[in-house]
Design goal:
Sulfatase modifying factor 1, CTDL_fold, SUMF_sf, three-stranded antiparallel sheet, 358 residues, alpha+beta, paralog of FGE (formylglycine-generating enzyme)
Length: 358
């Protein structure tokens, strides 16, 4: 435990006083849009040229019933998601500029999917086996939500993301030290790994004989066989007063009441699985997908769509423990956001899929 903590501090001190150019670039971002579209986590862009620097009808069953059949599976297991057609997106978008619509018919083939977000322990196994170094470790910094930083680390930071000042570039923050250089993962092996870039996530999945899901696969999995529902469990955020995902309760970003039991990430599988046996599809950590980002989609029926052929940002899905309806109403299956592939942050993780039976 001490060794890991020591390494985090040493790593931070070696980086020294290098400025975080990614954050400097972010100062030129436009003011955040009003309302639900302004969570700011899509503003976490590194400067690529410089290395441094709700409520609806209550259609859901109680949590124990909703999760029936999903519990008892071993940690880390994949489940077979039987393919089929589904309605992707929505004609009633919560955040129209995100390209949540139109609702369109998509078919996905069968595939296997991790039941949970990839954990710190799993990522540690990957690193132990391969010696892999993440992009945030190479850059020497990552973005951390100020609410989870220690006062000591926060006081050393003079920059922030202009459009979202609660995001701070923190030297020495990476998957080993997710809350800043004076943190470590010793006590949170079963929490989702964070501070992984799109390439980092893909490298892990390749090592695990898988790949990142397409956005269509991810959304199909999120919906769990339900049609036209907001969440993996239905339309009501808290059926019968129960929390079904690790989100933000209170006044973002100043007060997190943590009514769901968690101020930050939660151990994976802390909330009920959906009908496909998948945990934390919304909330806890955002999840990278394979697709490039675009906001215009064809209404023609598609089979196994893989998104645009190129782009500047990758699609992420599901929202995180930082999402609140007032700022980031993105903890819905149709919701989506984007980051540059080299982005890393304290609320962004992933899970893998593998080819299914044909
Ligand atoms: Ca929470
Ligand atoms: Ca998630």
């Amino acid at each position: 435990m001490m060794r890991l903590f020591y390494l985090c501090l040493v790593f931070a001190s070696v980086i020294g006083v290098l400025l975080i150019q990614g954050a400097q670039g972010a100062h030129s971002e436009a003011a955040p849009p009003q309302g639900a579209a302004s969570c700011g986590c899509d503003k976490l862009r590194r400067d690529g040229a410089q290395q441094h620097a709700e409520e609806g009808s209550d259609s859901a069953a109680p949590a124990h019933k909703y999760s029936e059949g999903a519990n008892g599976r071993p940690q880390g297991q994949m489940v077979l998601i039987a393919g089929g057609p589904f309605w992707m997106g929505t004609d009633d978008p919560g955040i129209p500029p995100d390209g949540e619509g139109p609702r369109r018919l998509v078919h996905v083939d069968s595939f296997y999917m991790d039941t949970q977000e990839v954990t710190n322990q799993q990522f540690q196994s990957f690193v132990n086996a391969t010696g892999y170094i993440t992009e945030a470790e190479k850059f020497g910094d990552s973005f951390v939500f100020e609410g989870i930083l220690s006062a000591g680390v926060k006081n050393q930071i003079t920059q922030a993301v202009a459009a979202a000042p609660w995001w701070l570039p923190v030297k020495g923050a990476n998957w080993r030290c997710p809350n800043g250089p004076d943190s470590d993962i010793t006590d949170i092996p079963d929490h989702p790994v964070l501070h992984v870039s799109w390439a980092d996530a893909g490298a892990y999945c390749s090592w695990a004989n898988g790949r990142l899901p397409t956005e269509a696969e991810w959304e199909y999995a999120c919906r769990g066989g339900l049609e036209d529902r907001l969440y993996p469990w239905g339309n009501k955020l808290n059926p019968k007063g129960q929390h079904y995902a690790n989100l933000w309760q209170g006044d973002f970003p100043n007060h997190n009441s943590a009514e769901d039991g968690y101020m930050k990430t939660s151990p994976v599988r802390s909330f009920p699985a959906n009908a496909f046996g998948l945990y934390d599809m919304v909330g806890n950590a955002w999840e990278w997908t394979a697709d490039w980002w675009a906001v215009h989609h064809t209404t023609e029926r598609q089979r196994n769509p893989t998104g645009p052929p190129s782009g500047t940002d990758k699609v992420k899905k599901g929202g995180s423990y930082m999402c609140h309806k007032s700022y980031c109403y993105r903890y819905r299956c149709a919701a989506r956001s984007q980051n540059t592939p080299d982005s890393a942050a304290s609320n962004l993780g992933f899970r893998c899929v593998a080819e299914g039976k044909t």
